[in-house]
Amino acid sequence: MTDQPAGTYAPSADMAANAHADKATYEKMYAASINDPETFWGEHGKRLDWIKPYTRVKNTSFAPGNVDIKWFDDGTLNVSANCIDRHLATRGDQTAIIWEPDSPDDEALHITYNMLHEKTSLMANVLKEMGVGKGDRVVLYLPMIPEAAYAMLACARIGAIHSIVFAGFSAEALGARVNACDAKVVITADGAQRGGRVTNLKDSVNQALLNDFDEVKCLLVKRTGQQIAWRDGLDYWLHEMEEKVSADCPAEEMSAEDPLFILYTSGSTGQPKGVVHSTGGYLVYAAMTQQYTFDYHDGDIFWCTADVGWVTGHSYIVYGPLANGATTIMFEGVPTYPDAGRFWAVCEKHKVNQFYTAPTAIRALMAQGNDYVTKYDLSDIKVLGTVGEPINPEAWNWYNDIVGKGNCPIVDTWWQTETGGHLLTPLPGATATKPGSATLPFFGIQPVILEPTSGEEIHDTAAEGVLCIKDSWPAQMRTVWGDHERFEKTYFSDYKNYYFTGDGCKRDEDGYYWITGRVDDVINVSGHRMGTAEVESALVAHAKVAEAAVVGYPHDIKGQGIYAYVTLMNGEEPSDELRKELEVWVRSEIGPIAKPDLLQWAPGLPKTRSGKIMRRILRKIAEDDFGALGDTSTLADPSVVDDLIENRMNKA
Ligand code: 6R9
């Protein structure tokens, strides 16, 4: 580490010298991408193989009433051919996907690009055989098995649009999504195996399709071999169908602007929105960010621990890495099975070079102690990444010191389902990091901070407000499936001529961005605006605290009071003394204004299955209004809610 202000971590000279971009290169490329996006993206679009090369690059408008986003729109290509076929001549025998099964006693699979080509082509022909054609929708409800990747690429190959529903979602949620996109086929498995437990997926599918969808066919992968209820004439085993079709399936010529996939994501209100991503722009951007953000080099082993049911899995397990000819790991299991060392065991076993996970996983593993990490050889790791929520400095430091041994740059990547790829992120060889900051924009991204009420852009370097993006980038979502009006209303109407992210953000005097959380998570205490993440971060910095979630609740005098839910480290006992200690601690970390008014001991926090804390539920409980909790079916463990209600601090 070289000369640098306290609290920042500059890339080592070695990293800077060998990376795709050092600081000067980043600055030069960034300036070029903003000053002349046409030329910049015109050049970088060539990283893909085009059937008919584009002559137009950027054709985008954020204008009220006329939001229209098109990139490379007169070009044609196929995503599956870009992720597979074009690599066959040079790397057909290279591993494309390492599949690590749930149980460490079962063997990992090394799927070469040649095998990926065969399996994808077979599945593509099976889908055709089942009547799926260009533009049709196919829902995937699959565990983390190789067939999930084959299915995505098979859809892309024949121009069908996939919509993945996370396999942890309920039958009800699945049915709603099948209905919303009017899917022709659901691809699923008999069962899923995760954390040593087996669940029956086919039952959920049957339940989802029971009444209203007796036309929807189902393609089944055999994973667990368990008993399932068969629907005659509608259900097909993949392995039987594969026998009937050829392994040769030409890739369909698609327009750059044809939809590649739909992914439903929940907003702050109402029904989940079907986020639509494109073929050309999405793949250019997913591939480029995978290469630059993680400083991926040929031959590296890349592991993103997300599930393909989330956008992170789409862009950084499948599309980005495979477009780059990378070796990408797909993990069926969970971080704590058979024990809390599993991530690190897998890193050692497959000699992982870039490791990408979520802060919630880091905090959970941190609470289990360092021994689970230190007993493994992690010396192949070069870059560590995080995504999904702000990372508190405590977790950042643990990740840096214990996992990275101080040698691995941490890339804190801020982005959204809607953005397709990273928008704010350090580059390992270019950006000095600061714990908790997603640092600087990726190429082509113009973040702006607006004064929330007036919508005026704040031009001072140091600023705080809502985060918007001033101009389009190639992987921006194109529309909400079937509802372009909702697209405009959600993202372009509160602040005209900008893309509104829904996140609050601070920019420091160095121009670094610090996400403060969703705007609806910002609380206002006695006229002071405070990010709940700030208070959480302070709490988690205390040695006895494993995790904390903070929400606002109505307070007679202050407007909003601070309500903190605190999960203690293993072996720590709640006590009044400890409560006082934490209050004093937060006062001293941030100031008296941040002292929680109410602090509840929470053995567990309500989380979505992707690990996001459901603050909506915590707010309701804090408001003593738990009769109206809304839908809790998407929680990883709905039972934690009962305990929180029982022991709430704000009983009338
Ligand atoms: C990729 C993904 C998007 C929301 C986003 C923000 C939060 C994601 C973050 C982060 C702080 C980061 N978020 N990454 N907050 N630092 N590095 O997570 O997509 O599920 O759509 O969530 O997640 O609030 O607006 P998605």
TrEMBL record:
Residues 534-612 form the AMP-binding enzyme C-terminal domain. The keyword Acetylation applies. The keyword Metal-binding applies. It catalyses: acetate + ATP + CoA = acetyl-CoA + AMP + diphosphate. One of its GO terms (biological process) is acetyl-CoA biosynthetic process from acetate. Residues 85-472 form the AMP-dependent synthetase/ligase domain. Mg(2+) binds at V540, H542, V545. InterPro entries: Ac_CoA_lig (IPR011904), ACAS_N (IPR032387), AMP-bd_C (IPR025110), AMP-bd_C_sf (IPR045851), AMP-binding_CS (IPR020845), AMP-dep_synth/lig_dom (IPR000873), ANL_N_sf (IPR042099). Acetylated. Deacetylation by the SIR2-homolog deacetylase activates the enzyme. ATP binds at G388, E389, P390, D412, T413, W414, W415, Q416, T417, D503, R518, R529. Keywords: Acetylation, ATP-binding, Ligase, Magnesium, Metal-binding, Nucleotide-binding. GO terms for molecular function: acetate-CoA ligase activity; AMP binding; ATP binding; metal ion binding. Its EC number is 6.2.1.1. SUPFAM superfamilies: Acetyl-CoA synthetase-like (SSF56801). Belongs to the ATP-dependent AMP-binding enzyme family. This is Acetyl-coenzyme A synthetase. It comes from Yoonia maricola. The gene is acsA.
